[in-house]
Design a protein that fits this description.
Leucine Aminopeptidase, subunit E, domain 1; 2 domains; nine-stranded mixed sheet; 18 strands; elongated; six-stranded mixed sheet; Aminopeptidase; alpha/beta
Length: about 500
Amino acid sequence: MAQIKVEKAKIDQKQTSLLIIGVFENEQNFSQSKELDPSVLTYIKETLDDKDFRGNFGSSMIVYTLGKGPMKKILLLGLGKRKQFTDEMARIAAGKAVLRAKELGTKEFSILQFSNLDEGLVEAMTEGIALALYSFDKYKAPDPESVKVEEVTILINSDSPRFQMIAEKAGHVAEAVNFARDLGNLPPNDCPPAHLASVALSLASEYGMKARVVERYEMETMGLGGIVAVGKGSNNPPKLIILEYNGAGDAKPYLLVGKAVTFDTGGISLKPGDKMDEMKFDKCGGCNVLALLRAVASMKLAVNVVGIVPSVENMPSSTAYRPGDIVKMYNGKTVEVLNTDAEGRMILADALAYGIATYSPKAVIDMATLTGAAIIALGANVAALVGNNKQLTDRVRRMAEKTGERMWDLPLYDEFHEQIKSTHADIKNIGGRPGGAITAAAFLSNFVGSAPWVHMDIAGTAWTQDGTYERSYNPKGATGFGIRTLVKQLSEEEKPPA
């Protein structure tokens, strides 16, 4: 990852190959403009007067300084209308700055603070820069002509130590997001459940956490029937991965549970072949949970967090579970399987029930690429939230508003529970097409009891797909959606009440 620094410096003193200056739409003035060489400033103002560059959001224009100043080039970057400018727009604009810098082949550049300085702005700019720099090129031959950005300096007009700390925290979070992207983008032949288990053990060793990997036959003994049933169709055995971070003594932990189906064929209820390759992303919820524990540990947050990742490969075979099977789950409830492609809720249910019974958490949040119905309801840019605790759900959504990771809560009315009642078992694993995202959550609610719980369906947002809104900081592939929101929530949790 490139080094991102925050400095208090006058732009006429900062040696840089490229200076990026954000300009609001139809405005001539910008911070520290008087520090530019008069001839350069005059040229910029004439450009703005002539409307050659209007400052429309995302637009850009190169100004060559011809040696008049310590910077070789200036990039004017449009920020749109000042009144409409938000931290999310700052995040996107910073990402656009990175992409333009890469196009120009620069290894280093400086970027002027976009608007009035505060923590949110520096955090957003840092995240936009770090996330836009990401690329997944593990399987590509090296390009000898490519130039990687190695250093970025955010120039501010205030004391830098405080804001450097903000940037460093944001950098830890961005590193975790990119870590999750790396895992999510791995092809299924290189990422069976055993690989995720190995990653978890490495994280525990590196960051001083406690890790445990429960194997299939131990799961059978423990009664984790849902995970065993889904995983038994594959030659790659299922794993239950547990990571524990202790940063707050004996305090009750947050429990984070993430679905990690390393590849989902649908099992006996086989999916259509079109876009089945995207089912490598069905592990993104679990990848995100591993990344969240990495972020929390690297930031040394004063909270306790337990991450549980049930990981399976859902394959059709002579040993696969079948439509019509009745499976006994960890908490004793029986499930009639009507569709083997509704496997995520089966493994999540066991992991939730086990985690709550074992750790008595203060709150539970699960992340899963669970239903296509969530995409039909909210599109590919908004995650669905369903829970049993309004305070917790509202808190997650408020944090999401700060991070630009859009989420919306759906109601869990009694009628949805009726849809998953089974004739031959306690419940069935699908409730029909109506309200499919909610009936999936209704299924999960049978395994959380009274614990405060919110379910995050990230089926539309976990990777870039049809309908995904283009954001400069989200390259194609896994996005790491939800990590920044939950890290912010856990960071707020460690603060004492006002």
